[in-house]
Amino acid sequence: MLNLERLRTLDALARHGSVSAAAEGLHITTSAVSQQMSKLEREVGQQLLAKNGRGVRLTDAGRLLADHAARILSQVELAQADLEAQRGQVVGELRLVAFPTALRGLFPAALTALRNDHPALRLTSRELEPEYGVAAVMRGDADLAVVLDWYNKPLPMPEGLAKAPILDDRVEIAMPEGHPLAGRSEVDLADFAEDEWVAWPEGEFCHEWLLYTLRTKGVEPRIAHRAEEHHTQLALVAAGLGVCVAPRLGRDPMPPGVRAVPVRNRVHRYIYAVWRADADRRPSIRAAVQALRTAAEKVG
Does residue 174 register a pLDDT over 90? Predict the structure, then answer.
């Protein structure tokens, strides 16, 4: 009889593409991955892995069994979800990921509420940018991810995921108090054609959105500084080093010397939760979505 944990290891190898990445995704050592695969090969009586340079690749038999393993594990997850739904209790483990401002702006209140209301639920969380959060859910490394769409640039979303809206996050432009536009009640992104920008690291989803949006307005952005965190970006703005996009979620407290002005025609981003569709009936998923929505109600 095939061992479920060994099938899980094979599935991780197929999804991650290497022993080291599979070990990281499963939170075990590389030697444990190798041992599990050796045992699985003895069980099935066929070679499942072959050397490929310094790494390994799946043989034809390995790919065949990995396809079955993915379906088996999906059915196991569906069975667990159905059992949880029938019992109606929020129990077990729930692994959550979120992009930085959602982790800071929503998770403290949401996770505290979940822990207080459902003491039998074990919670873990970590920070991941939206595209990596989606990938973690698809790989089975996370149960739920909080991600975002910009109003004019949606995040690519693979099939097999369910989603629920959490918050419409209004965006403003942060600038030094002495900026010529700081006294305006509204601004347009094109008003900052001559300004230097403080933006996200190159290649990130939000950085690509900023370039795309400014260029559609005929502005070639002058990005002088890049920082992952909004609070770091705002500190650079407070020092007079540029302007930045300032969503309301997770930005408080605003540093002294910075003025945030709303963008005309309401620039915003949609914050939502995603999870695998085969886990849709898990009470813990539904409890987490509700806790996140309650936390979002407190965002100004």
Answer: yes
Q: Is the pLDDT of residue 80 over 90?
A: no
* End-to-end CA gap in the chain: 56
Rounded-to-integer distance, Cα 260 and Cα 104, Å: 19
pLDDT interval class at 55 (50, 70, 90)? confident
- Structure tokens of 179? 């900026």
pLDDT (tens digit per residue) in 247-269: 989 788 889 999 999 998 778 89
CA distance 200 to 217: 19
Distance of CA 220 to the CA centre of its chain: 29
Q: What is the pLDDT, as a whole number, of residue 88?
A: 67
Average pLDDT rounded to a whole number, residues 24-49: 88
pTM across the whole model? 0.73
Which of these, 225, 159, 166, lies nearest to 196 by C-alpha position? Answer: 225
Question: What is the residue whose two structure tokens read 């003491």?
Answer: 119
